[in-house]
């Protein structure tokens, strides 16, 4: 996967059109980030990418908490999801299909999942069609890495 700091307004527009969301919510022009923090340096994630991923999380938050508290959300919490074993959040109800899997949620697996959950794990109960934009998935996964 190519790691560049560039954003893709066209992909954002297409996503917004597909989701009928306001363009403001997923705006890629992040005015909050000072220019000196712009370049992704070494292991520090690009703050713009993170900010973009955090905004994209609106697609997930109805069903997923970001804290390790089962709460009353329909999906498992996503605290520490990167490198967490599949279907392992205590107190969550999983489909038989996901429970039968045996892998950890590496960034690569999250990318596959978020592209098209039902293709990666047929029979999953996650009602989410998928996020076609590779750059958008990269941003979202950068944010998931902070949970
Ligand atoms: C409509 C509700 C819903 C939405 C929206 C949704 N999910 Fe889910 N998600 C679920 C459910 C339910 C499961 C459990 C699936 C299963 O057991 O087959 C799940 C499972 C997962 C898992 C596996 C967790 C584990 O413990 O193995 C991940 C990762 C995940 N979702 C991430 C996301 C992300 C990121 C988004 C936003 C792009 C998202 N989901 C959007 C309902 C949702």
**Overall 3D form:** globular
Q: Please count the helical segments.
A: 6
**Which kinds of small molecule does this entry bind, naming each only once?**
heme C
Helix content: 25-40%
Compact overview of the structure:
With 147 residues, the protein is mainly alpha-helical. The chain has six helices and no strands.
Descriptive labels:
147 residues; binds heme C; 6 helices; mainly alpha
Can you offer a commentary on this structure?
The protein has 147 residues and is mainly α. It has a domain at 47-144: Cytochrome Bc1 Complex, Chain D, domain 2 (Orthogonal Bundle), CATH 1.10.760. Helix content is 33%, strand content 0%. The protein has six helices and no strands. Helix 2 (47-56) crosses helix 6 (134-144) and helix 4 (107-115) crosses helix 6 (134-144). The longest helix is centred in the first third of the chain and has 11 residues, at 9-19. It is globular, with a radius of gyration of 16 Å. The protein starts with 8 loop residues before the first helix and ends with a helix. The site of heme C (HEC) has 28 residues, from helix 3 and helix 4. The site of heme C has 28 residues, from helix 3 and helix 4.
């Amino acid at each position: 996967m190519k790691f560049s700091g560039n954003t893709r307004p066209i992909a954002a527009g297409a996503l917004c059109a597909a989701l009928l969301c306001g363009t403001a919510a997923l705006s890629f022009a992040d005015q909050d980030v000072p220019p000196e923090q712009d370049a992704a340096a070494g292991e520090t994630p690009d703050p713009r990418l993170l900010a973009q991923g955090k905004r994209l999380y609106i697609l997930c938050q109805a069903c997923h908490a970001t804290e390790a508290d089962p709460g009353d959300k329909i999906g498992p919490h996503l605290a520490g999801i990167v490198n967490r074993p599949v279907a392992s959040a205590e107190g969550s109800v999983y489909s038989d299909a996901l429970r039968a899997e045996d892998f950890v949620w590496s960034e690569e697996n999250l990318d596959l999942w978020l592209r098209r959950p039902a293709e990666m794990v047929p029979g999953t109960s996650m009602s989410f069609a998928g996020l076609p934009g590779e750059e958008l998935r990269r941003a979202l996964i950068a944010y998931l890495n902070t949970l």
